[in-house]
Amino acid sequence: MTGKKGVLTDTLDTLSFWVSWSWTYLLMLWFLLIMFLIWFLRAPLRLHENLDQLGFFMNSLTPKFYVALTGTSSVISGVILIFEWWYFQKYGNSLIEQLALTYVAPFIGGIDLPEKPAQSECKVWRNPMNLIRGCEYFKFMQVTGSSPLTHYDKNLSSQDQQMFFCADVSGAGDKSDEMMAEAWRTTDTEKRVSLALSAVQTNSSCASAYIMLGEEMASTVPEADKYFRLALKVADNNIRKFVSIQTHDSKANSLHRRDINICVYARRRVAMCLRKMGKLKECIKITRELIKEFPIMSVLHIHENLIEALLAQKAYSDVQQLLTRYDDLNLPKSAVICYTAALLKIRPVCEKFFSDVTQRKGLTALQYTAVEALQRAVEFNPHVPQYLLEEKAVVLPPEHLLKRGDSEAIAYSFYHSSHWKEVPGSVKFLQCFWKDTFKLIPFPLEKGVMFHPYTIGTEETDRKLLPSFHEVSVYPRKELPFFLVFTAGLCLFTLTLALLTHFYPVFMGELARIALEYFATPFSVIAEHLQALLPQQIWNLLTRT
To answer: Which candidate in 185, 274, 345, 519 could, as Cys together with 373 as Cys, close a disulfide (CB 3.0–4.6 Å)?
Structure first.
């Protein structure tokens, strides 16, 4: 029984092989069958008479026909081009190619396409320079009527705040902690403020409630600074109480971790408020102390706040020392690190930089070093130069950003464009060289020179982070599909023919006849060779009507 099954299986495999092999030559058999039917039905179809009439008809055509023909062709190709462009803008590929793959490919055995890599989730980072909602983001919304923050961005902030400000003491915390846990979970501003006010009335030592009021309710920077200082004062008192106690349970340890987070966050916010009020020395002092006391918090990129404040103070030597510490191969890079390093390299050479002199004499050693630093920065984030050169409008930066994306470029340019303008000639140097360095970015993007290749899906993540009224800068730009270029060329070609035929009808009519004769020449030559090769009896049989 097993032997019979094996023979049957082998027979079926052989049969399926021969069937699949026959399908390979089906197109050739179909073509030969059509040719045979045309020859067999040549007498009823009166092919010779119809061909003679066709030749007579083509010779009697007027230039108006050619105008109508080319005009109609240009209109049809223009319509196809419009649909191709719309489909490409919406879906990123060709409409004709998609239709061919969907409806035509199954009839010819399908096409093996390479599998596209799955789009991994891009890592989103907290913006270290994010604005204050109440006195900055909400004021923009009141003036313009458009929200600068997306729902996706607000949800990410809510998750961060829950992790940062909520202690894991379920059922053991006081009522104010429960209120604030509910407040951090929601994204509705009014509900947040209401719960924070209730928590303060319940417990005047609720530090997280003061953080919430400083972020959401304060209408000015000094008012926000007042709330952050209250939160800092409460958190410092709680930390001192924890240190004075010898033994601690799990609840106390959880509350202590939350108090440390509040202390770091509030001190950083106080420093940012001082920076906004122009008190640079106090801002720099607090930020330096924060980095020194909590080095483990480097993941929050507090050093970027310090770099921006030092640049505002024009303390370039201190900035260089910071870059020496943080611009390390093992540490994650950012646009602030890369472009600040480029700015410091450009600064010694840009004031006496003249493009015409450079074209004649070439780059000096210092200029070449500056161009290399700029190339490194452009490769890390190619979106930044357009914002620094004011070729694109800058919007309010989101609360989260995607490294090497448009959101990071906006966050960097929002604060650092003024620092570039403070260095005479730096913007001119950037304008002269950034496009040339941009051309040096490796293609295809699976390769990289100084950094890893670009992550797939950056455009989609940036669109989630940035408001709808902002046109997202995309890199790398998608290549135009073949059929879109082909239909554009076809539309332009037929439109040109229509215009030439309309203005020069006699010349274009003569040109069309010459072209038809030229294209018919190979077929007449083949017919003559066949007539010379085949016996006269067979040729008469084939051509008999």
So the answer is: 345
